[in-house]
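FAQ

Q: What does a record look like?
A: Structure on top, sequence underneath. For example:
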């Protein structure tokens, strides 16, 4: 095998493995005291079981609007559930008085604005939408 075919094969493998990475990241404000969340903390936060991280910092989840592609992908990666399952989960909790679902932002621009202005809010967005007002506190891996 010549040099060029080997180079193309290596490039293909590198791109294929990079494409398997999830594009969503969990973020908070640069002003927030939250530096990192574990996967279980993110699950507990978004399923209404946690309002502070293990360091005691207040954490409030912020969702995107129902059925946005990012929200569908987020819950699939986080708890392997569809939008209807999440809606049914929250309906049961709200009906029993157990908890309230996360507040929602209409779109990613609103989510970024809200998180950057309110330390303690936690949201998710595609990595390519990050800006200097936000910090990543959890990244999905290929094998959760």
């Amino acid at each position: 095998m010549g040099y060029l075919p080997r180079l193309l094969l290596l490039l293909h493998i590198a791109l294929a493995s990079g494409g398997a990475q999830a594009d969503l990241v969990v973020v908070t404000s640069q002003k927030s005291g939250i530096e990192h969340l574990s996967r279980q903390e993110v699950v507990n936060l978004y399923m209404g079981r946690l309002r502070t991280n293990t360091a005691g910092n207040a954490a409030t989840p912020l969702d995107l609007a129902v059925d946005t592609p990012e929200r569908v992908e987020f819950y699939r990666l986080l708890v392997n559930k569809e939008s209807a399952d999440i809606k049914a989960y929250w309906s049961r909790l709200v009906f029993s008085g157990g908890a309230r679902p996360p507040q929602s932002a209409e779109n990613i621009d609103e989510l970024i604005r809200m998180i950057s202005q309110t330390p303690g809010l936690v949201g998710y967005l595609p990595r390519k939408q990050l800006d200097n007002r936000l910090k990543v506190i959890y990244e999905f891996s290929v094998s959760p």
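Q: Is there anything notable about this one?
A: Confidence is low (pLDDT under 50) at residues 7-21.
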